[in-house]
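Q: For a teaching handout, I want to show students what a protein-ligand complex looks like in token form. Below are the inputs, and the small molecule is zinc ion. Please produce the holo structure.
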Amino acid sequence: MDFYNQSLCYAENGSKNVALAYAHRSACFFHMEKYEEALIDIQLAKNANVSEDQLTEMDQRKSECEKLIVKKPLENLPKLSYEADTNFPSIANVLELKNSPEFGRYFVAKCDIPCGKIVLAEESFIGVRKDNPWMYCSECLQMNTNLIPCQSCATTVFCSNKCMAKNTAHKWECGTNFNLFDCEIKFQGQAIFLAIDTFGSIDQLMEFIESILCDVEKQPMSLLDSKSKYHFFFNLSKSLLHADDILLVYKIYIDLMKIPKIAALFDSKEKQRFLAHLVAHHFLVILNNAHGNNSYQSVGAIFSMFNHSCTPNVMQFFDGKQHLVTIRPVKKGDQLFISYLGKQKHSLEQRQEICKSKWNFICNCERCNSVGEIVDHNTITSDVHYIFVLENGYTEDQSSEVLDHCEKFLNNYAHLPWSDEIQFVIDIYCAHLSRNNLNQLL
Ligand SMILES: [Zn+2]
Ligand SMILES: [Zn+2]
Ligand SMILES: [Zn+2]
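A: Here is the structure, written as tokens, with zinc ion included.
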């Protein structure tokens, strides 16, 4: 798949190699039992004028796909479980934004929310994958799908014409090797491209930044327009600047200035100084707010405002959008917490150490404060829902039943102190909520 994607990127537009790559990739999808994707590639190969003898093979594969295709559940991306908030459409209207000196900006529940409710579905503000750039859609970050190449360069692919049309960042780097850089540098590039695209000119961007720096208390009241979104991102909490970071910031600045279109925009000493400062600001915001795992990193405006607890009541799963699902029953007025620590099991000391060194706070959650963790493992492990999840969690056949048993288990037990069993059910639950995550788990 990797090589066919890459050959698609390098094939000359309109050449027979384009058709050949789609045709061969359809065979990959067929072997992966991804018949719908195979059908799309067969059509893409035909559109690209696949040769006569290949055409017969394509038609054969097409009819085999049509025979084998079964409509599976989980076709659609998960949606919010409630109506969307009017001003912040990525969150459910059961959450309320609060502000306090202790927590900064955070969310509380406006009513009781049971387990298994999706309360956030947010497109990343910026996001990158750590894989090769020809392996995933530059806009929505989807992998193993019908990727189509940018017609003007050999380093960027999209999952659909829709994503290609929606993407604004790539035009800045197209034709340069910027997309081949480290994920960290690409991330910074995206933030700068977005800042430039949000405003008509560098002068307007500078004026806007000047105005928000004069009034740091002022927060955008909605996320409905691109300026508010950028304002939101700009105001996210920053990491402290370490001496080592300055060199990295300088490198990012130099790499950006190597892009001819960027150099042409920042054509005076004043503008270049502004760009260097903006890169440094973005760098610290991203350092403090980027979330992800070993395959992707992203920053979402709303998602970045959730605080940490070692006993989170919402869990994130990524499926093109960042989602949050309740994993414990949440009472009216409760704050919603995610975990910054991922799936690794950490001791109390390790958790405290990571929170302090990485995010500069001392975790004061109920788990860190409790003296011992008293969990009756026998009750949990003999629970019928737990046993069902244990036996069926790693297959995709009974996905909706698995989800159902997970929800019942979590509603019964997730109020108890955190345990490996609860973590296990939550991981399986999040995986079954989306096809992409399930594929990764299997
Ligand atoms: Zn896409
Ligand atoms: Zn391009
Ligand atoms: Zn804690």
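A: Two things your students might notice: Residues 68 and 340 are 41 Å apart (CA to CA). The chain has 19 helices and twelve strands.
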